[in-house]
Inverse folding.
């Protein structure tokens, strides 16, 4: 069974969100998502400073098997991308919730944070998919 | 639920991720596709390829039948057990399937793809009507491919003395029967190794022994990246019934001589050869960031456009590679549309990797 940390928020499209004290939000893909993808070989990040709407594409993650779009879980402006993934994309597989983060954003509508799934709700969703 | 090979439970017990592959429930990987890929390049891996279709051709006209059925010429097989790779073409010279045929002296063993099984058997039976031959599918034979620089050494360790003695004398592209087993020195990875046909009832035990001898189970995911690095075509992706062997990097498998050998598709191929094929299948190398996949548009400046037929990240090389069908006049460079970007690639002659090493310049 995949790991689903209790201190994070989630969306249906298998991204996780960590809400930091200063209001920035760190985003990555879940353990469940990386295990479905298989070995990650390339990550394409969105441009820093761009504002992206909820549900819009915000980069691509490619495994040996296939390419998958990353979707913006909530609207926001890209503050920083994880450059480690350019040279070590396999970090997404080995440490999806920490060193394998994708990007940090400043949310456009902080109220969107209220609508995210908690760990239990996300676990139920994954189990329903299996 | 799809068909299951005799090794299905072994795969589940080894934590395989099972996917549908042409109606068969097959292992895609047992954890990491890249690790499985690398173990075949560096050591020894094993694949369940029991879904492949084995057909024996017997009868007085066996040779004449296959000389008519196939673009390559089985008369070239003068030694017992020697095999050749061939396209099986339709009248228009297009590829119905690719296959391996072994000369068993007096009869032949043919191995065709699983996804094309019904179509192939129907075509082979139709063409057989004019010949004194009998086609027998060996559906109760399982098949295990053991591949890698240490594959033969590790496989020998689990064999009987008789199997060992035959295996040690096998030349590359030769296969021989040993009791109920058939051991061929063939593969689909670009490495040395064996493809072993085993009665279904015995294959799980043999697989377990290979595992104990240090041969790692590998899924169809690694099989695909290995064959693509080795520049080997995948039927249905790199060629199919819409193209000829001449535009599929399979020109070398067409035996033009003797000139009086009539084979299905010959006149169409001769016409295509005379007018000059319009396209060719080449290798593409993307040394920058990104991953090539099948069905991406290839742009050749001043010449025209083509399309990738297969593409992947190459674990051995550390960057993306692809096979692509491009205009015949394509030179050393091209570009590929990858989502919204146009990426420059080098055009090379496949293979990309042989015996663990990069082969293109």
């Amino acid at each position: 069974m995949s790991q689903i940390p209790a201190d994070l928020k989630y969306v249906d499209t298998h991204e996780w969100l960590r809400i930091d004290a200063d209001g920035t939000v760190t985003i990555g893909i879940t353990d469940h998502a990386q295990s479905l993808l298989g070995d990650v070989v390339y990550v394409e990040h969105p441009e820093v400073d761009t504002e992206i709407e909820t549900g819009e594409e915000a980069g691509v993650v490619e495994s040996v098997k296939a390419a998958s779009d990353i979707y913006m879980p909530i609207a926001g402006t890209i503050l920083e991308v994880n450059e480690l993934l350019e040279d070590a994309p396999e970090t997404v597989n080995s440490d999806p919730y920490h060193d394998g983060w994708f990007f940090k954003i400043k949310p456009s509508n902080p109220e969107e944070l209220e609508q995210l799934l908690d760990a239990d709700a996300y676990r139920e969703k994954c189990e329903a998919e299996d | 639920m799809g068909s299951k090979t005799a090794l299905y439970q072994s795969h589940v017990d080894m934590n395989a991720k099972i996917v549908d592959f042409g109606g068969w429930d097959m292992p895609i990987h047992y954890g990491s596709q890249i690790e499985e890929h690398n173990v075949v390049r560096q050591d020894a891996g094993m694949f369940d390829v029991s879904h492949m279709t084995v057909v024996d051709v017997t009868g007085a006209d066996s040779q004449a039948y296959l000389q008519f059925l196939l673009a390559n010429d089985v008369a070239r097989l003068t030694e017992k057990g020697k095999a050749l790779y061939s396209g099986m073409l339709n009248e228009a010279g297009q590829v119905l399937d690719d296959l391996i045929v072994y000369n068993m002296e007096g009869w032949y063993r043919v191995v065709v793809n699983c996804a094309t099984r019904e179509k192939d058997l129907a075509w082979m039976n139709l063409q057989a009507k004019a010949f004194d031959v009998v086609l027998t599918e060996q559906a109760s034979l399982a098949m295990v491919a053991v591949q890698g620089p240490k594959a033969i050494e590790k496989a020998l360790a689990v064999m009987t003395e008789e199997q060992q003695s035959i295996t040690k004398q096998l030349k590359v592209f030769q296969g021989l029967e040993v009791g109920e087993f058939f051991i061929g020195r063939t593969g689909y990875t670009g490495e040395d190794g064996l493809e072993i046909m085993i009665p279904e009832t015995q294959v799980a035990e043999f697989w377990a022994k290979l595992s104990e001898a240090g041969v790692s189970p590998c899924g169809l995911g690694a099989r695909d990246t290995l064959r693509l690095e080795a520049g080997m075509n995948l039927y249905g992706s790199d060629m199919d019934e819409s193209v000829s062997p001449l535009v599929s990097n399979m020109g070398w498998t067409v035996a033009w001589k003797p000139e009086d050998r009539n084979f299905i598709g010959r006149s169409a191929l001769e016409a295509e050869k005379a007018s000059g094929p319009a396209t060719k299948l080449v290798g593409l190398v993307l040394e920058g960031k990104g991953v090539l996949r099948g069905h991406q548009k290839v742009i050749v400046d001043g010449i025209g456009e083509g399309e990738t037929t297969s593409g992947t990240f190459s674990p051995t090389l550390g960057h993306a590679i692809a096979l692509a069908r491009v205009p015949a006049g394509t030179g050393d460079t091209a570009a590929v549309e990858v989502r919204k970007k146009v990426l420059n690639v080098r055009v090379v002659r496949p293979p990309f990797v042989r015996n663990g090493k990069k082969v293109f310049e």
User: Anything to note?
Assistant: The mean pLDDT of chain B is 97. The domain at 278-358 of chain B is CATH 2.40.30.110 (Elongation Factor Tu (Ef-tu); domain 3). Chain B has nine helices and 21 strands. The CA atoms of residues 29 and 189 of chain B lie 16 Å apart.
